[in-house]
Amino acid sequence: MAVDRTAEVPARVRPGRPRSEQARAAVVRATSELLHEIGLRAMTTEQIAARSGVSKATIYKWWPNKYAVAIDAFLSEILADSPDPDTGSARRDFTLLLQGVCHFYTGSSGQVFAQLIGEAQFDRDVASELQDGLIQARRATLRAIWDRGVARGELRPDVDADIAIDLIIGPALYRLMIGHAGLDDAAAATIVDTAIRGLSV
Known about the structure:
The chain is an all-alpha fold and 201 residues long.
């Protein structure tokens, strides 16, 4: 059974009556369990409702589709695996965060997450939910690390921050999707070290 990490997830606000955090946690937990047991495509909103004890109608008030619920479930796991460490060193922060991301990618949710990315290539709504619900949250953490590094004089202020973030996080996602190389702690450290060589002051 998946670990309940829903308390760590910032709820995305949608119009309407405020959601019960207990019910929301039950939905995200049930979704995480179903993702591990039967996978993204096989999972249905009806199954989420049955397992969580939250009505299908209520789920649709809070999320537009099962993919949006899945994204919240994935976000809870990624935040648990790779929070912002804020160690005082940008290189160390990026390394720890990327190692956490790699742990998520190589864990039981990694291939399901890859399926979600695949779905996003063909479904605009899924792509939008993925971008708004997960990608922006991860990039905000990476941007905070970058900005701290620039402020401390560790990183080059003349480099485009978005491109720098792509250089750091992109190789791990590429390895997840293609599977041509490893995603262990050593690989994450090497990726960050290589990128930082060109990004350091």
